[in-house]
């Protein structure tokens, strides 16, 4: 586990030093750091994963942002911090991560670090379900049973605005 941490930190350091260099080698280094971080994450070495994901997230890597948000949400490898979980999940969701959109739906549904808000939960679950995620579809439908017609209409209106603002 210690060797994985050393390798991940060395890759992160080389990323920082090469940020101004040729973009193709940088992309390869970022991919290597991400792969090492994910390997550490799935092995339960959350501290190593958190360090690598943090470096990549600060460079705008959507997958690292998602994983970092999950670490802060669970308190694995970092102190549990709902504000940081919200920040990183939102960063990833804004870039189109359907996993992060699902996480935001869950945070708003349960009131984790945010006021409980079924309209927001519905919006994020619906965005996530657009990728075919059946769990997100079920959660969105559950939210709809807890909402008034006007709340559901508001969620759909705001989701449409979000989609128009994020057209690529």
Ordered list of secondary-structure elements with their pairings:
Blueprint: H1 2-17, H2 23-43, H3 46-58, H4 62-74, H5 82-94, H6 98-110, H7 118-129, H8 134-145, H9 149-165
Strand content: under 5%
Number of helices: 9
- Calculate the terminal CA-CA distance, rounded to whole Å: 41 Å
Q: What class would the helix/strand composition place it in?
A: mainly alpha
Please sum up the structure shown.
Helices cover 77% and strands 0% of the residues.
Textual characterization of the structure:
By secondary structure, this protein is mainly α. It has two domains: 1-89; 96-168, no CATH class. Helix content is 77%, strand content 0%. The chain contains nine helices and no strands. The protein has helices at residues 2-17, 23-43, 46-58, 62-74, 82-94, 98-110, 118-129, 134-145, 149-165. The termini are far apart. The mean pLDDT is 89.
Question: Which features characterize this protein?
Answer:
single chain; 168 residues; mainly alpha; 0% strand; globular
């Amino acid at each position: 586990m210690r060797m994985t941490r050393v390798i991940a930190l060395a890759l992160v350091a080389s990323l920082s030093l090469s940020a101004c260099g040729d973009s193709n080698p940088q992309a390869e280094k970022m991919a290597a750091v991400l792969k090492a971080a994910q390997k550490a994450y799935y092995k339960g070495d959350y501290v190593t994963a958190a360090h690598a994901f943090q470096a990549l997230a600060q460079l705008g890597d959507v997958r690292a942002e998602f994983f970092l948000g999950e670490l802060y949400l669970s308190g694995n490898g970092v102190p549990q911090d709902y504000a940081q979980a919200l920040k990183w999940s939102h960063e990833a969701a804004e870039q189109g991560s359907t996993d992060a959109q699902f996480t935001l739906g869950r945070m708003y549904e349960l009131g984790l670090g945010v006021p409980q808000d079924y309209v927001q939960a519905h919006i994020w679950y619906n965005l996530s379900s657009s990728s075919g995620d059946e769990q997100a579809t079920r959660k969105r439908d559950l939210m709809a049973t807890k909402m008034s017609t006007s709340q559901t209409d508001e969620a759909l209106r705001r989701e449409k605005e979000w989609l128009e603002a994020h057209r690529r």
